[in-house]
Design a protein that fits this description.
The chain is of the alpha/beta class and 336 residues long. The protein folds into 2 domains: 198 residues, inorganic pyrophosphatase (n-terminal core), CATH 3.90.1640.10; 131 residues, Diaminopimelate Epimerase, Chain A, domain 1, CATH 3.10.310.30. It contains 13 helices and 13 strands. The strands form 2 sheets. It has a 7-stranded parallel sheet. A 6-stranded mixed sheet has the order 8-9-10-11-13-12. The longest helix is centred in the last third of the chain and has 18 residues.
Length: 336
């Protein structure tokens, strides 16, 4: 029977293991990547064999992180003995980590570490903290429970996790707690200027060209409260840009003055569309994402929807309008 647990039991269970497999989610972002690499580094310092794997490779912006070169995909991972514990990080459901069958076959005990409220609690042990801004917070609690001093191999990936999941400390930061955590990590000697340059200030000329295209194709509802950008796959190919290089485009939509709900639709292979959503209080992006079959955080969420781009865009905007009218928190008087 799956059960919820806490930092103490997770720390004890992992400390007793001899071999741990840490699993990232597909299309790995900074949180799943940073949390996985930091957890692996901490376990290795405890003398525990730790391996990082995922459905997809770590993307170029995060390949500078310690341990990134050793991470493998399920497809490229060589045969290994079964792990004592398989740990998923930042995965709301097993399909994002390669599937439940894959996870179960890789180890004896399945542990689920996450901070998404919609997590399906698919592990034997489930430590889910919706109040955490990133899984980095959970990993840092484990490091403290093990009385491990922070070093760069652990602190750098955790800082990247925090910085990226808060979009440069701009989203989900409700009080000073996150800054205090970041300060602890920075005090290990991190080069913050270099980290922020790599994460937020570097992009290819092709990606800049796509950004210029995006600025010309932003659309905004008459009310001004909803704005969106739809990216057809042929445009992505025309600019020669990798999908991960489009992740920052949602920020352009959200930056429009007066926007409370920003929508970015990217056409995917195989007849799917990824819908990314950002919102400002009191609007909750997660509600719309869940209606589309996805999930995420309260104000940063996403879904992958089957269908043609124009149809998914129309359905998404219609659903947003429906939710706007159904919920009094979305009325003009409450969001003006």
């Amino acid at each position: 029977m799956p059960e919820s647990t806490d930092a103490g039991r997770v720390a004890t269970t992992l400390r007793a293991a001899r071999r741990v497999l840490i699993v990232m989610h597909q299309a790995p972002d900074g949180d799943t990547t940073g949390s996985a690499l930091a957890l692996a580094a901490a376990l290795v310092r405890l003398g525990i064999a730790a391996e990082v794997v995922g459905p997809d490779p770590i993307i170029p912006p995060f390949q500078f992180l310690p341990g990134a070169a050793d991470a493998r995909t399920w497809a490229t991972r060589s045969a290994r003995p079964r792990a004592d514990v398989v740990v998923t990080v930042d995965c709301g459901e097993p399909s994002r980590a390669g599937g439940l069958e894959q996870l179960r076959s890789a180890g004896t005990l399945l542990m689920n570490l996450d901070h998404h409220a919609g997590n399906t609690r698919f592990g034997d042990l489930n430590w889910v903290e919706p109040g955490a801004v990133a899984v980095a917070e959970l990993v840092l609690q484990l490091v403290d429970a093990w009385d491990l001093p922070l070093d760069v191999a652990v602190a750098l990936p955790l800082y990247v996790s925090l910085a990226t999941d808060t979009e440069g400390f701009r989203v989900g930061v409700l009080d000073s707690r996150v800054f205090r955590l970041a300060a602890r990590l920075a005090d290990t000697g991190l080069d913050l200027a270099d980290i922020h340059r790599r994460l937020f200030e570097e992009e290819s000329l092709s990606a800049m060209g796509l950004r210029a295209w995006a600025l010309q194709h932003l659309q905004q509802a008459p009310s001004g409260k909803v704005a969106w950008l739809a990216l057809p796959r042929p445009v992505l190919k025309r600019f020669g840009v990798e999908p991960y290089e489009t992740d920052g485009l949602i920020a352009l939509v959200r930056a429009l003055r007066g926007v409370h709900l920003a929508v970015f639709l990217r056409e995917e292979p195989g007849g799917f569309v990824k819908v990314s959503l950002r919102s400002r209080p009191p609007i909750e992006a997660r509600r719309l994402a869940e209606r589309l079959g996805g999930g995420g955080h309260t104000h940063a969420a996403a879904a992958v929807v089957r269908g043609r781009l124009a149809k998914v865009q129309a359905e998404t905007l219609a659903l947003a309008s429906q939710l706007y009218g159904e919920d009094e928190r979305w009325t003009d008087s409450s969001t003006s």
